[in-house]
Write a sequence for this structure.
């Protein structure tokens, strides 16, 4: 007698996109479809409050189909232990979320830097579909990013915003004491600073963008300068990783795509070694805010597959 | 009846360190011991001459114990096909050495960039013993290097000398059209240029080193400057890869270690994100010229293990 297997329902994952203002969670399938969603404000008080909110965000969605949990966190994650070392805008410094969530829910757990998670999503489902190696830059308040090598997310820091592109240049803000890092030269924060320099204390990145689109020479010059720094950093990444594609996303990156991407690609080709110097593509991200949630789900499936 | 296995002799590999002036080959065991050696000058004429010399360097050492071949080549290697794209000082552009050698000798073949190969050797047997992730810089005429992630050699370009550390800075020489790359700012060639600037057309890197050791202020200032650029690049690598250790080797790197390594470590810590900013170690390479030969043998074993 032949035993007939009953097909198990395809497993789902819960992906959590954890930000300083909200926690978005979703039930995600292997193809990155979000079949249910949940969103709550991020508590600002203590570690305990945040952890309780994270657990509630899982509990709101969990059912028997859920096989793994994935978290995208704005933090440095220890490469080996997966412990959160230092989080940005969240009281989760030095916290072992993998251990906590595995004990609380009895499932495999992945914890990743939020920009890494977005890079994974873009590589599988967004601008990087078909590319086996991809570098993604997310230009927002700061500059983050991630690296996908041969289809797999690089699990190291990938603090792409903190490469030096202008030794001795302007200093970073916050906990970084470096100088001339990409984040200090080409980001939403850098654009805010430039806007204030050019147009006074009330101007910001949006104002700078509007002036550049009107053809204001000073604004355009500063976008050319930012494009040069972004191109320098991307040229460095190309010479290190030989990616098929470089994807630029993030709030500022998307808002300024029309002004930045073509000159960034040109500048990056100048810095890239041949034969990539003629073929390198710099493309806009496609998934927008959705990348965090979907990518966290994909990280959960990666951990599930490693565990089985 | 229990079958008794006869222990096969441990396999050996032939590693070839292929340079512009000589081809060094060696019979290497898994532990990196070199049990036999061979060396011939590199022909300078045609691709065919070089390939014949490479084959002869294998034939001189091959016996029944040899299970794989590994080549370290001063070249860009295509990440996927392993084809040599562009070689430095060798007529091997656009040549499929893996295919050629596999057909000629019927063995698994690894072909790697020479600096990557040296990084693998340092990580297993040299300064990087015990470190799971290591970045190595080889400072010679140019700047090369390699990255070992979690014990395995990163097989991409890792053109570490061509990261931009000073956007808009001095241009590279040869086939690179970039500006402000590490190689143009801190290498044997850069030191030669600085020596000529300071002391006239006959001065070179050795003279600059001698003057700095005598306490010459101008020479020391330029070493401080080079240390800053090296520290900037290393800070970038640390923020990307979170290595346990950064190793500096190469002819110029070894000759100038006493002047460079301490200030380089200090500068790199300034650019590194915490908590590595307090713990980062920059150490001298230990294997010297031997790294190329031994590393090529280790690459052969990596390919052998992947094939089986």
């Amino acid at each position: 007698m032949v035993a007939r297997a009953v097909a198990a329902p395809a497993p789902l994952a819960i992906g959590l996109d954890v930000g300083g203002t909200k926690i978005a969670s979703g039930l995600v399938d292997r193809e990155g479809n979000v079949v249910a969603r949940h969103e709550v404000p991020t508590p600002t008080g203590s570690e305990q409050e945040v952890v309780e909110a994270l657990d509630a965000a899982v509990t709101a969605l969990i059912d028997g189909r859920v096989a793994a949990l994935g978290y995208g966190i704005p933090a440095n994650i220890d490469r080996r232990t997966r412990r959160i070392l230092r989080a940005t805008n969240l009281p989760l410094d030095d916290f072992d979320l993998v251990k906590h969530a595995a004990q609380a829910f009895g499932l495999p757990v992945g914890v990743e830097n939020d920009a890494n998670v977005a890079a994974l999503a873009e590589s599988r489902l967004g601008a990087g579909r078909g590319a086996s190696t991809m570098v993604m830059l997310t230009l927002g308040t700061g500059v983050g990013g991630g690296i996908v090598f041969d289809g797999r997310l690089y699990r190291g820091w990938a603090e792409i915003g903190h490469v030096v592109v202008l030794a001795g240049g302007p200093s970073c803000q916050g906990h970084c004491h470096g100088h001339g890092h990409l984040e200090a030269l080409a980001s939403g924060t850098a654009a805010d600073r430039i806007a204030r320099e050019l147009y006074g204390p009330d101007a910001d990145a949006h104002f700078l963008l509007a002036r550049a689109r009107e053809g204001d020479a000073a604004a355009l010059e500063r976008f050319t300068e930012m494009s040069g720094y972004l191109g320098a950093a991307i040229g460095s990444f190309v010479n290190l990783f030989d990616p098929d594609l470089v994807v630029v996303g993030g709030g500022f990156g998307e808002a300024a795509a029309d002004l930045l991407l073509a000159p960034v690609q040109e500048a990056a080709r100048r810095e890239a070694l041949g034969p990539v110097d003629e073929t390198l593509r710099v493309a806009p991200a496609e998934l927008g805010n959705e990348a965090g949630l979907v990518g966290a789900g994909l990280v959960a499936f990666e951990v599930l597959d490693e565990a089985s």
In short: Chain A is about 40% helix and 20% strand. Chain A has a mean pLDDT of 93.
